[in-house]
Amino acid sequence: MALKSFVLTIAILAVVTSISHASDPSPLQDFCVAVNDSMAAGKPQVMAFALRAYFDPKDVTADDFFRTGLNIPGNTSNQLGSAVTAVNVNNLAGLNTLGISLARIDYAPYGLNPPHTHPRATEFLVVLEGTLYVGFVLSNPGPNMKNKLFTKILHAGDVFVFPIGLIHFQFNVGKIKAVAFAGLSSQNPGVITIANAVFGSDPPINDDVLAKAFQVDKKVVDYLQSQFWWDNN
């Protein structure tokens, strides 16, 4: 009986822990402004904003909660024809512990924000200008089933949600530029661009692994790994 109770307790703790880590932590005070000391002591400090923060009102100003420039279009003259201008805890210190961030996305005609994921956030996209073909793919569904694709054509004023962690994309199908804003449910959502991560990793993933995974000749993999993989963020 004691063993069953112990196992049940461990199971409950595991569930509670998984739920508590499912999103950014809730703030314990009005604000907790991040300290930008990433180059302290002459060397980079990983996630420095999570280690030090201001929470006393006398130590912060309105500028800690302010950022300008999202009225300026991003430079889309690149291979993808898109540019992402992110506002997150790395460049707006007041977002620390608040669990949200924002991005402006500009698309040249036929520009693409390529398939990618946000490992720590759901994305809520609002189209301001242009026409976008958007979509996301479900996670592995099981034996003898394919990953289901959800797509939609969006026009100005339309919104679309990309669930946390799922591969998604946006493609400007119009002959004019497009602009969208995205809200994300994390102060630091992260981004993994699929092609960049798979074929542009440093050091490269073994070509035998990729050839087998994609069921192509190693020469195809070697060619893809030799390309320059553009980062539009």
From TrEMBL:
Tell me which residues make up the Cupin type-1 domain.
68-222
Q: Which Pfam families match?
A: Cupin_1
Keyword Transport listed? The answer is: no
Report what the protein is called.
Germin-like protein
Q: Where does oxalate bind?
A: N113, H118, E123
For this protein, the record's InterPro entries field holds: Cupin_1, Germin, RmlC-like_jellyroll, RmlC_Cupin_sf
Q: Which family does it belong to?
A: Belongs to the germin family.
Question: Which amino acids does the record list as binding Mn(2+)?
Answer: H116, H118, E123, H168
| Residues in the signal sequence | 1-22
**A GO CC term assigned to this protein in UniProt:** apoplast
Recorded hits in SUPFAM superfamilies, A to Z, give: RmlC-like cupins
Print the keywords alphabetically. Apoplast, Disulfide bond, Manganese, Metal-binding, Secreted, Signal
Tell me where it resides: Secreted, Extracellular space, Apoplast
Return one GO MF term.
Answer: manganese ion binding
Q: Where does this protein chiefly localize? A: secreted
- Record Gene3D superfamilies: Jelly Rolls
